[in-house]
Every structure is written in structure tokens, then in C-alpha cells.
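re: that complex we talked abt at group meeting.

here r the seqs, copy pasted straight from the sheet so there may be weird spacing, ignore it
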Amino acid sequence: MNRMRLFTPGPTSVPEEVLLEMAKPVFHHRTQEYRTLFAAVNKNLQEVLQTKNPVVTIAGSGTAGFEAAMINTIPQGGSVLALSNGKFAERWVTIAKRNKCQVTELKAEYGHAVKPEAVAAALAGKKFDAVTLCHSETSTCTRNDLQAIAGLVRATDAILIVDGITSVGAIPVKPDEWGVDMLVTGSQKALMLPPGLAFVSVSEKARKKIETVVQPNLYLSLPHYLKSLAENDVPWTPAVTLVRGLNKALEMIVQEGMANVWRRTAGLARATRAAAVAMGLKVFSQDPVDSVTGIYYPAGFDDKAFRGALRKEFNMNTAAGQGSMEGKIFRISHMGYVDAPDTLGLISAIEVVMKKQGHQFTFGAGVAAAHQELATLAG
Amino acid sequence: MNRMRLFTPGPTSVPEEVLLEMAKPVFHHRTQEYRTLFAAVNKNLQEVLQTKNPVVTIAGSGTAGFEAAMINTIPQGGSVLALSNGKFAERWVTIAKRNKCQVTELKAEYGHAVKPEAVAAALAGKKFDAVTLCHSETSTCTRNDLQAIAGLVRATDAILIVDGITSVGAIPVKPDEWGVDMLVTGSQKALMLPPGLAFVSVSEKARKKIETVVQPNLYLSLPHYLKSLAENDVPWTPAVTLVRGLNKALEMIVQEGMANVWRRTAGLARATRAAAVAMGLKVFSQDPVDSVTGIYYPAGFDDKAFRGALRKEFNMNTAAGQGSMEGKIFRISHMGYVDAPDTLGLISAIEVVMKKQGHQFTFGAGVAAAHQELATLAG
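got the structure back, here u go
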């Protein structure tokens, strides 16, 4: 009777309080009751996204959110500088190309951050409508230096559209202070909700672009969302149960406080990386992000056998590598409803399975290293 | 302690079994567990939509579903015959126009069905890429003769895209038999779920159109959904909790049997219309649909005061009229998780409030008339 634990970088575990909130009878959304709920949600979304800009809520996946940000601000034939070092950044390039944008890709190797100097060089003397970037590239478990890059884009006419899907609520993001025009995130990561909602913040600079862009899509039309949002309303039928769960989850996050949430997430990530090193394993990313850790398998390890045993014997769910990283790494989330005991338990389980499957290391070294780091979280 | 009852034509009440199913811990969607769940869902969706064609599930509102159907099958600059007799049909015209389609609108007055003869005349000698139609126009509580219209469109090269958002699971719809190429529906109506999912069935004729159309949107790209669906998988992160609730709700519907569900819904609608007439009220639609009934207010009645009293005194939620019908009618849903006692209770409450607010009628006449009709449902 091992409790099921999700260490996948989305979906993540949802608190019981949130699950039960969503199990309450459904009510109608064209009511004062809904507008009151949505007003509370919108206020707390601004706190969690650390912005004073409006934050639009869309019923859909993170992909819907990022696509909404792009198609409403970049005119057909517009130009995009796409900073890319992983599978999710590549998806945003796909969207740009489908929308007939002229895309300049600035790539960094998987597992490496995009260098701000390279961004400065790519921007120099060029005019872009938008720059796109994954703050936390989930596929490679890598953090890009958003603050530095935002500082560069801010000085240009381009707007900066940031995939914060696994950074918001996990690592420090300060869009207003740094100059992020559109910050996109999803419900099923650090926000501790099931999948089904996407969020997009809209700066004044982005709003001005939106006013000039004509695009065909209705469902993802940001002017419609922004107009309704001003009255804490929605243009299309919202996913009421998820919004109600969101209200509860946001309350929990705001009560813990953003600085504390970031500190906890960073501590769990540090503990996991320290454990990996102590077990003779190598962390995949050269610029690791604290929301999700990728770890190389020892030579000869089989991804399905390893993660399958973690699931079968311990009811613990981790993620495989994606694309060319498949089979080479496994990934562990530190986002949302996860704490030190969960993480220590995971390290212990990883030790047991790794030992059984033939990796040579000092049994207990991972747990000891993790324990040292986790102790620093205790206060 | 009146139990809250939703008689709004979406969202509708969600069975407790479904709410609790959705409150179970979230699991990951890139797993065999999810594919097994989704396979069961897909099989039952075909039963409930009465089709052998694949049925795509999209995380989004019904608008997302209808837009997906249109943009993936109608090329830019393509031609659409839009049959229109209410607010929802008008929204589909908006989508067509945003997508630069050449739109021929064939309008019927609010509260009247679009005449098949008029459709035949509009089709004669013209070439359309698609014909769009609301089977059950929720705003006017009116049924269009889908079978007759589908028979006309079938003989042409156009595909027929049908808004079945308040018809599927409520009134007989037989897309394969009648010749409906794309049947769109949403979760929060007769499917007894919270809002957040849309469904689109895709015929072979529609699939051939899809193969020829290049459209920019990624999130609503049907080729991506269809490719994944063949393996009971999804292109983007699905709304896992809603899909799990859907599985439960579909099981309940299939167990009752489609013919029984249609019979129950029709009986509740008949009882409501009979009660209205017995109370000296007038049903709005000349061609009423059984999923939702619109009733004219007596002269001098105030919509907010009337529906507010129903809500405040009885915890019963009905819907206002939309657009030009606002203030003139109120609407009552018969879809999904609603039965004879609920409906009889609503009629009783309507009598109490109407009497109190000055409408002259024989007190008890509505309940007596409803009772006569509801008794026919008993077996």
C-alpha cells in the first residue's frame, strides 16, 4: 500500500484539499458567484506570476496558452527570434512556422543555457516582432538566464514571450521587474492542479501589439479574453471545476509565500543533485533548473526496466528523456505538492532499484547526501 | 437546505459518482493506464455520438471544438453555407468570417427551424466547402431537422458540420445514418460533466478535406489529434481528471441506453411544455427541441426578479434569454443528470414564484399537467 507519488514534471500531485474542492457540485459561470471566485483567482494569479499585468486563463493545455500568446502578437509574416535549447522551444518554433513567421533560431546544445551574449549578438541591428524563450526547458531540465535576456529584449521593439510552464511557482520569475511581456504557464505543474488550464500574462507593450494584429482564431483570441477579464468574466464557457480548484491551490501557494515556495523547490533540487553525485551518477544539465532534475543512467541501464521498477515496487512515477535524450536520462520533478520526506523517499527507492539493477555505488550515500541538503530546509 | 439544482442549458448537474471519480489522485497521461482509460472513453463516445467514426477529444470549450472542425476542413477563402437561427449559429458565422471564408447565411427567424426546402434551394447549383448547422439551437430552444438537411448536403461535395452541443445525449442524433460529417459536442451538457472538454467526430468525407487543408493553428490541428487517437493517445497534455470523469459518465449513459436517455429527456420536455401551457404561458419556439425549453414571461415580468427568486427561495438555477430574447424568455434544461422529481419540483417552484409575482393562473395547474406527462415515463 505504497501511496502513489508523481515526480513527473507535469502532471504533478494535486493536494487533497484541491481535489475535494473540485468535487463540489458544479455551478453556473454566468453568475456573480463565478465572477467573485474569478476575481479572487485573478488577484492571486498576479501574485503567483509576480506581475501587475492582467493574467488570462484559457481552458486548454500549455500549448494553447503559448499559441495564444504568439498568434495574437506576431502578425502574419512577422519575424521571431526563437531561443531554443530543447523540445518545448522547438514546439514554439513549429507554431511560428505554421503561422508563416520568419523564424531566426538561436540554438544552444541540449542541456546548456542559451547565452545572453549570443542573444545580444542576434538582436544587434535586427528588428524582431517577438523573442520566444523557455525559462525552464523541461525536456533538458535546464534554466535559461531570463533576467539577463529580458534586459536585452526590453531595449528593443520586440516583445518577449516566455514559456514559464515549469518555472512559475517553482523558481524566481519577476516579469515586471525583468521585462517579460507575456509569461505563459499551465495548471498541472507548480500550480498543483490537474491539466486543463493555461495562463498568459499581458504587458502594456504586448497589448499594443495585440491591438495591431488581425488573426483568424476565435477561441484563442486574446482581445476577447482581455475584454471579459476586465470584469472578471470569460468569453467562452470556462472549466469551472478546474478554476475552483485553482482558487484553492493559489490560496495555499500564496499562504506559503512565493519566497518560501522557491526556497523549498530549490532545496529539493539541490538534495536530488547531491544524491545523484554521491551515487556516482551525472546530472544531465550544465545549467540545471530547480524545477526538474535530469540524471544520466549508468552505462547499460534500461529506462523502461528502471522506471518500471520504481513504479511497480514503490508506486513512484518519474519521467523518461524526450527525443534524442530518450533512454539516456530520467527526470524528477520538484514542483508543487512535494516535500522533503517525498524526495528523501524517492532517493531511497532509486538507490534500491539502482543497486538491484547492477549500478555500483556506496549504498546509502545518496540518502545521506540528500538528508544533509534537506536538513537545511528545516528552518 | 434546498439542494442546488442546475436547470441551465449547460453547465448541467454532475452526478456525485462522476464528481468523486474526478477527485481521485491525478495520474500521468503518457502511460498505458491512460491509454486504457482513453480506449474505453473512445469506444463509449462512439456509442453516445452514435457513430463508427473517430471522435476527437479536445481540452477546451465547445467553441474550441467547433472552430477545430471548421478550420481544419474549410480552406482559406473557402465557401460556407451557414444555416442560422440563433446566437450559437451566429458564433460559427463569426469563426468562418474571421477565417476569410465566403459565407452565405441562410437565416430563419429566432424560434423557427431552418426549412429543409430553403436549404435545398440554397444548395442548388452552388458549390460549398461546408454547411454548418446547430442541431439544437440552445439560445432559441429550437430543433432543426438535421435528418432532412443532412440528406440534402450528403448529395453534394460539401461536408456537414453540426453543432450537437445540446443535442448529443439528449435527442436522437444518428450521424452515420443521416450523413453528418462532423458532429461537435461539449462535456457540460447531456454528458453530465463539468465544462472543459469538446468532442468532434470525423467522417471519411471530412477526413479527405482535412488532408487537403493547410491551416496555421497547432493546438486545434485535427491531423495531430487523429494521428494520436489511432493509438488512444493525445497530442497535447489532456485534462486528465475530466477524461476520467467522462469515462464514468459515459458508462452511466451507455448503461441507461441511448433510447432510454432520449425518451427520458423528451418526457421532461413534454411535461415542462404542458405545464407552461396549463399555466397560461407561451412556449417560445415554434419548433421546440427536447433538450431545453424557452418560455415567454407574462407581460410585465422582470427576468432578474423571477429567476432570482427561484434561485434564492428554491436554489434552482434557470437561464435568461440571450441577445434580443433577454428579458423576454427564460430557459430550462432537460439534459443529463435530471429526472422527473427534479422537473416536477421545478414546475412547483415556478408556480409559487409566478403567483407571488402577479401572474394569474389556476394554482396547481402546471404541476398537474406535468404530473400527467411524467407519469408516462414511469414504465
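couple things i noticed - Chain A touches chain B through 52 residues (CB under 8 Å). Chain A has a mean pLDDT of 97.
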